[in-house]
Amino acid sequence: MRSAALAVTMAAAMMAGAAQxxxxxxxxxxxxxxxxxxxxxxIMADYADDAVVLQSGKAFQGKAAIRPLFERMFPKPPAGxxxxxxxxxxxxxxTRIWEEGNVGFITWEAGPMKATEEFVVRNxxxxxxxxxxxxxxxxxxxxxxxx
Length: 147
Hints:
Elements lengths: L1 H21 L3 H10 L4 H6 L1 E9 L2 E4 L1 H11 L19 E8 L2 E8 L2 E10 L2 E11 L12
Parallel strand pairs: 1-6
Antiparallel strand pairs: 1-2, 3-4, 4-5, 5-6
């Protein structure tokens, strides 16, 4: 009788854990996503299998298409090699995280680059991510054309 009660208790705990994962807010998902600090497996766990990432006029659909974006962003050093040095100034600086309904938002800066990202979250997973990036113009302003 005790083993049956234990099995029911364990099943209830497992279902509660699954429900909690599904109930994460968009802000919690965004924080977990960026808190991964380049761990691609942790980052990818935040995406639905059929997720879509829109970046620079391109659509990447499904985890198999999205993963290479992060592999380019966070390359692993060859076995035995020291990790690459971080750029002076520290890299990405998060300026704001917030949510509206089922959409999480983040704004960040990295040197002259500024970005806003939107994450549509359903059932505790990122369904759609849209990345808007801009950089400050390089060099001095262009001279006015001669008349």
